[in-house]
Write a structure and sequence with these properties.
It comes from Pseudoruegeria aquimaris. One of its GO terms (molecular function) is peptide chain release factor N(5)-glutamine methyltransferase activity. This protein has 13 helices and nine strands. By secondary structure, it is of the alpha/beta class. The protein has two domains: 64 residues; 200 residues, Rossmann fold (3-Layer(aba) Sandwich). The chain has a seven-stranded mixed beta sheet with strand order 5-4-3-6-7-9-8, with helices on both faces. Strands 1-2 form a two-stranded antiparallel sheet. Bound molecules: glutamine. The site of glutamine has 13 residues, from helix 7.
């Protein structure tokens, strides 16, 4: 019979030998999940024996990690803006940098918000949770992603205010909005080759890249967004750090005014915003 600490040490070594970055952190997260305890309790549980069922559950998680499955998919959740979101291989793993888009969006008043490419729903559902009077529409072209977003909406208790639609961008959308947000697929064809195996093998390709120069989604959205925005209402994007000038130009050409490229805390371009003045 092995102990918690010996089990953790052995697994950490296996992950490290397989070249998994952050082997110790990942092993701790996965063992805590297998034992059904918070990570912070592992140390005090160190001398305790692990049961056969716990070892089997942990082994399955370690096997998944050795296949480079992301920890968030193995444990089935990711924290975003202080709330837990269900995460599966059908959705983009909510990224900390996407919290910038939420922060920028919350600078504006909105009663009705549209999220294009909602994925897990992390952006839309956070905005609705933060603004209890607001209503929202989230669209995604993937029915499997929408199923995840629906479960997240229920878990956050905002399902009555969140309409989740299967739609190719605006195709199934109607009405006008006070705010449109999107973190569309923007990775370029060339950058795709440099992704970690966790992302390249296990996150949905359609959520990551539109192919080519990575700008196709911005072009399609900007060309159509005016018909869905109230006069003066903002369109707010997340972008790749090298795409600021290109996306700002696309927005201006489409008739947006006051277009601004907004940096993140490290100074990298991260969001672009413009107001519909058409
Ligand atoms: N809106 C989701 C997110 O920001 C999904 C985005 C996407 O799939 N490109 O995480």
């Amino acid at each position: 019979m092995s102990t918690v600490s010996a089990t953790l040490r052995a697994a950490t070594q296996r992950l490290a030998q397989a070249g998994i970055p952050d082997a110790a952190t990942d092993a701790r997260s996965l063992l805590a999940h297998a034992l059904g305890v918070p990570r912070s309790r592992l140390t005090l549980l160190g001398p305790e024996a692990v049961t056969r069922a716990q070892v089997e559950a942990f082994e399955a998680l370690i096997a998944g990690r050795l296949e480079r499955r992301p920890v968030s998919q193995l444990v089935g959740r990711r924290s975003f803006w202080g709330r837990e979101f269900l995460v599966t291989s059908d959705v983009l793993d909510p990224r900390p940098e996407t919290e910038d888009l939420v922060a920028r969006a919350l600078e504006h008043p909105f009663g009705r918000v549209l999220d294009l490419g909602t994925g897990s729903g992390c952006i839309l559902l956070t905005l609705l949770a933060e603004r209890p009077e607001a209503q929202g529409v989230g669209v995604d072209a993937s029915p499997a992603a929408l199923a995840v977003a629906r479960r997240n909406a229920e878990a956050l208790g905002v399902q009555a205010r969140a309409e989740l639609l299967c739609s190719d961008w605006f195709a199934q959308v109607s009405g006008r909005f006070d705010l449109i947000v999107s973190n569309p697929p923007y990775i370029t064809e060339d950058e795709m080759a440099a992704l970690s195996p966790e992302v390249a093998l296990h996150e949905p390709r359609m959520a990551l890249t539109p192919g080519g120069d990575g700008l196709a989604a911005y072009r399609v959205i900007c060309a159509q967004a005016g018909a869905f925005l109230r006069p003066g209402a903002p369109l707010l994007f997340e972008i790749g750090h090298a795409q600021g000038a290109a996306v700002a130009q696309i927005m201006e050409d489409a008739g947006f005014a006051g277009v601004a490229v907004l940096p993140d805390l490290s100074g990298k371009d991260r969001n672009v915003i413009g107001r519909w003045c058409g």
